[in-house]
Design goal:
- The protein is an alpha+beta fold.
- It has a domain at 19-128: Immunoglobulin-like, CATH 2.60.40.420.
- It is built from four helices and twelve strands.
- It has a four-stranded mixed β-sheet with strand order 2-1-4-6, with no helix packed on it.
- A hairpin with a 2-residue loop joins strand 1 (22-28) and strand 2 (31-33).
- The protein is globular, with a radius of gyration of 17 Å.
- It starts with a helix and ends with a strand.
């Protein structure tokens, strides 16, 4: 059963999602365009930034205060090239806040991505934890972000593609 489930997950991660959209966020002068978007799980986000506009993911409080301190486990920090990431199920029902480090204070250069809680994912919001793995698909260097809704211990087991325990 584990092998069937694992095979299904691998195949479904390889196949393109016909409902997913690609959203491009560009820099126009001293603003992101669009600067406020709503997306769905599976959508691919491209924030096209450059050397003059280092872009960092921040908390809502930092965003509201036009600050530049990155959140712990940020998807991107001081990024000066195109930022590409896929919205995962663990992000459903959340907001992603980001700022241009050089121009948020002087020009209010910041943006927000609202992630819809897609139909069928209500149980995700009730879960004791959520997690994201990026980039998607996983490459040589990847990050795992675990969000716990209460203080608790985490036991993590990593399995290889053939279903064998690789790390504990």
């Amino acid at each position: 059963m584990k092998k069937i489930l694992l095979a299904f997950l691998i195949i479904s991660s390889i196949l393109p999602d016909s409902h997913a959209a690609t959203v491009n966020i560009n820099i126009v002068g001293f603003s992101f365009s669009p600067n406020n978007i709503t997306v769905n799980v599976g959508d691919v986000i491209n924030i096209n930034t450059n050397i003059n506009h280092p872009t960092t993911q921040v908390s809502q409080a930092t965003w509201d205060a036009n600050g530049t301190t990155a959140i712990s486990g940020a998807l991107f920090m001081s990024q000066t090239t195109t930022i590409t990431f896929t919205i995962t199920a663990g992000m459903a029902g959340t907001n992603i806040y980001y700022v241009c480090e050089n121009h948020v204070l002087s020009s209010g250069m910041k943006g927000q991505i609202v992630v819809n809680l897609a139909t069928g994912l209500e149980e995700n919001a009730k879960s004791e934890f959520n997690f994201t793995i990026y980039p998607n698909p996983v490459r040589n260097n990847s990050a795992l972000n675990i969000i716990l809704k209460k203080n608790d211990n985490v036991v993590m087991k990593i399995y290889s593609s053939d279903g064998k325990l690789a790390s504990n």
